[in-house]
Design a protein that fits this description.
five-stranded antiparallel beta sheet; globular; about 15% helix; about 40% strand; endopeptidase fold (from Nostoc punctiforme); six-stranded antiparallel beta barrel; mainly beta
Amino acid sequence: MNEPEYGICRLATVPMRKDPADSAEMISQLLFGEHYHVLDTSEYQKWLLIKNEFDSYEGWIDKKQHRSISREFFNQINNSDYQISTDYQAELSFNEEIYSVSMGSVLPLLSNPLFSEEEKVIFRGKAKPIYTKLSRSALFELGKTMLNTPYYWGGRSSFGIDCSGFTQLIYRLAGVAIPRDSSQQILKGEEIEIDESMMGDLAFFTNQKGKMNHVGMIGKAGEIIHASGKVRIDKIDSNGIFNDEQNEYTHHLFKVKRYLPQNQ
């Protein structure tokens, strides 16, 4: 059996596609610093099927955007302390080249010698230890820093983000890992009523055909922050999301789920 191959994202974002082709749907992204398993290789060796170690999400990436690392390096990453960028966009130097990276990018602690051995990363921006817990109000304030970020199907970054990418990113900043897609997120957490909801709870919605296809995070009383066209704050009640600009309900409430302890 061949030795498994591992990789790490060394671009601001790398698209993960449904099929091994540039024209295929982008279903997710890797952010700078995320590492992954290589599961398969396409015909002609141009595409790699990978699994993101953070959320176990699978998709195809262009081999030209792959940076191979050893099993030892991969295991060191899993067992090391990290920080996560909390700047909307920040600058870093990687191997003496300048990159602009998204909120949520994963970085080594400055005291960690791991990266100085194989590559040089110098980060210029605000960051926090990856597992630091935050209060519900702090979670909402982080969400607000993403306001007006454009909606982008499959996006997980401050360059463009989809609804479940937004909730996953904000929870990750709070030290809580949740699945990638809304269809996976809704399977976790404790179901509660809308009138019991608190800042930081997640609300799920259906479209006009009754299919659950949207998620957002409860904000202050009667508010929700979500990615729809852009990251925005709208009104929410037992019927769903009311958009003042359109003067109508744009999403129908399905369920509310609680992931965080009530007293957090």
